[in-house]
Specification:
With 631 residues, the protein is an alpha+beta fold. The chain has three domains: 6-203, Immunoglobulin-like (Sandwich), CATH 2.60.40; 315-506 and 613-631, Orthogonal Bundle (Neutral Protease, domain 2), CATH 1.10.390.10; 517-601, Pdz3 Domain (Roll). The protein has 19 helices and 31 strands. The strands form seven sheets. Strands 5-4-8-2-1-12-15-14 form an eight-stranded mixed sheet. Helix 12 (437-449) packs across helix 14. The two termini are 38 Å apart.
């Protein structure tokens, strides 16, 4: 992409990008062949050919984690039957550590063959069966040490099973010798780009649309009867165009030349993983919009929020990055205290962009926001861990949560989104509505993100240092945010949203649960039994001696079962008043125990948000306010 002018560097067409690969370049590039070998056994067969291996013995390795999911997953554990050959003759391949191998010296073409077990139905790894195939590059592509900067070539081959003759391919990889949606040869400019373009193959449903002139694919894999692709495409297009306009209000130029939404619809599931020109999503098929379905279900709103979240990452974290992420070390943890910004701010904008795009109204948005507030304030962990600490500890705490997590940690996603809201309101109030968090995001984009991948080709890319955020906010808005960040990001104080929102015509009602009795636990079904999932610190169950994983048998002689989980024991506990003592029988492991708990007032937050002053002056400054004439 060295021939493009600066504003167009990341917007060249696929044909232009692939044309820079001459036959000589292709033949000298690391070359992978991917074959869905055994659908029932969930095996991808991979062949890696290295034209010019290191004379001292080529090193290869598989990433230990995937960017966007901050946990070491050791993908190499799924590699089996790995071997090497030099010019067709088998040679030694020594394993050096959990994910690195070294081939014996080879003066000709080196071939490394291996199988990858793919049975992880998630957005993070690889999955293969008779219905579809999906993989992230971090799960299948060995890195060729010393050649990561070179173009990479991939042959995607169709499964041999005749039942797969109608399968297609969805990926943002550049076609070299393949038709769009077809099997064949694809390319990437370097290894970093190669592993940032996941691949879906199967009989998926496909719809296409343009957002600000850029083609987008919307792919859904899985059985969804009467799927309403037209509605989903219309809604997602509005979201995409609103986000593009946020970062580039004048040019309306997207940072990629093509984008692919890859959605796996399953019985139960929810999640997404961002990539530079695509996203992998998983959701319940009940969350997908259906034809002739009236209104908008809560599940569908959540799905649109997921699409919005991952699309926003196209800018925030895929191009605007923490400094430590500017050049990933995929062999180990990469620590940053800024995930509250990169995930938290994205979580703020995901639902906010739904209302700005006109997909939902402001009342619906405030209802979704209230749920987030209630979720954050439910756990006492927010008083023990700051979102900066939560960001740093993501590898060992947030991604490895256990039954005590609500009492020990805070989410940099949810509290981070409230930090973003609070900062947005603070900036708007301090500047009489002339500046907002939008200006901060645009400043970050212009300084760090706009040319990130163009600069990366010459190793000149830069990320945001942890000490720079205050100066970026100051330059973009004129607001000194140091005290705010000290309190709510580096400190553990709750963001005072009721106070901040008061100037914007939104009333924050805390609700009143003082007369509702509670044990202070969260229960989950365990077969026919009712099991304690979490015991909240300082609450009645904790003081009585109950623990997570205890199975409740009876309360005051009345049986408790899995049927009581649906209402969170509200009916079972609702028979009693605050201050009453109840006798509880429970099993801990295989031992019966009896405890006495004095019921406390329910402390489950019940915050609601309502527009109290819909007047023009306050409404125009509110982040979620939209003039009716716009839609």
């Amino acid at each position: 992409m060295t021939t493009a002018t600066k504003p167009e560097r990341d917007r060249q067409t696929s044909s232009a990008r692939s044309s820079v690969l001459s036959p000589a370049t292709v033949s000298s590039s690391p070359h992978y062949s991917i074959i869905p070998k055994d659908l029932a056994g969930h095996i991808f067969e991979v062949t890696l050919t290295i034209a010019a291996p290191s004379e001292s013995g080529q090193l290869v390795s598989l990433p230990a984690w995937i960017p966007g999911s901050y946990m070491v997953r050791d993908f190499a554990r799924h590699i089996q039957q790995i071997s090497a050959s030099c010019d067709g003759k088998k040679i030694g391949l020594k394993k050096l550590d959990k994910h690195t191998w070294q081939a014996a010296p080879c003066k000709a073409a080196l071939t490394i063959s291996y199988e990858v077990y793919a049975w992880d139905l998630s957005v993070r790894a690889a999955h293969l069966d008779q219905t579809h195939g999906f993989f992230n590059g971090t799960s299948v592509f060995l890195s060729v040490h010393g050649q990561e900067h070179l173009p990479h070539v991939v042959d995607l081959q169709r499964p041999a099973d005749p039942a797969c003759k109608t399968w297609r391919v969805a990926t943002a990889l550049t076609e070299l010798k393949a038709k769009r949606y077809g099997f064949g040869t694809y390319t990437a400019r370097n290894y970093d780009e190669l592993i940032d373009h996941p691949v879906e193959m199967g009989d998926f449903v496909l719809a296409t649309f343009e957002a600000c002139g850029v083609p987008h694919d919307f792919v859904v894999t899985g059985k969804v009867p009467n799927i309403d692709m037209d509605r989903m495409v219309a809604d997602v297009r509005k979201i995409c165009e609103s986000q593009i306009a946020l970062f580039e209000p004048r040019s309306k130029k997207a940072p990629m030349d093509r984008y692919v939404f890859m959605t796996m619809a399953v019985g139960e599931g929810y999640g997404g993983l961002e990539h530079r020109a695509s996203t992998a999503l998983i959701c319940s098929r009940n969350d997908i919009s259906l034809k002739h379905q009236p209104g908008m279900s809560e599940g569908y709103k959540g799905f649109l929020g997921l699409c919005s979240h991952e699309y926003f990452h196209t800018w925030n974290v895929k191009r605007i990055k923490p400094a430590i992420f500017a050049d990933y070390d995929l062999s180990r943890e990469n620590y940053t205290s800024l995930l509250w910004l990169f995930e938290g701010f994205t979580s703020y904008y995901d639902d906010l962009m739904l209302v700005r795009a006109g997909v939902i109204d402001e009342a619906a948005y405030l209802k979704m926001l209230a749920k987030t507030i209630n979720l954050v304030t439910r756990g006492s962990g927010r008083k023990k861990q700051s979102v900066a600490e939560s960001s740093f500890d993501a590898w060992t705490k947030y991604y490895r949560q256990d039954e005590n997590s609500p009492n020990a940690i805070v989410s940099y996603y949810t509290k981070g989104s409230l930090v973003a809201l609070g900062l947005d309101l603070t900036i708007r109030a301090a500047t009489a509505g002339k500046k907002s968090l939008d200006d901060v995001m645009r400043a970050l984009w212009q300084q760090f993100g706009r040319d990130f991948y163009a600069k990366a080709l010459t190793a000149k890319q830069q990320g945001l240092a942890e000490s720079e955020i205050e100066s970026v906010i100051m330059k973009a808005t004129g607001v000194d945010a140091r005290r705010f960040l000290d309190k709510y990001v580096r400190g553990t104080e709750d963001v005072p949203l009721a106070k901040l929102y008061a100037d914007f015509g939104v009333a924050v009602d805390a609700g009143d649960n003082s007369k509702k009795a509670s044990l202070g636990i969260k229960v989950v079904p365990d077969g026919r039994d009712c099991k304690i999932g979490n015991v909240f610190e300082g609450r009645a169950a904790h003081l009585a001696g109950l623990s997570a994983l205890d199975v409740l048998i009876a309360i005051n002689g009345l049986r408790v079962t899995a049927a009581d989980v649906a209402d969170g024991l509200s009916a079972a506990i609702g028979r009693y008043r605050v201050g009453e003592t109840v006798e509880i029988h429970a099993f801990r492991r295989d031992e019966l125990m009896t405890v006495h708990a004095t019921l406390q007032a329910e402390d489950m937050p019940a915050v609601s948000l309502n527009i109290s002053s819909p007047g023009k002056k306050t409404g125009l400054s509110r982040p979620s306010f939209q003039k009716k004439s716009r839609r």
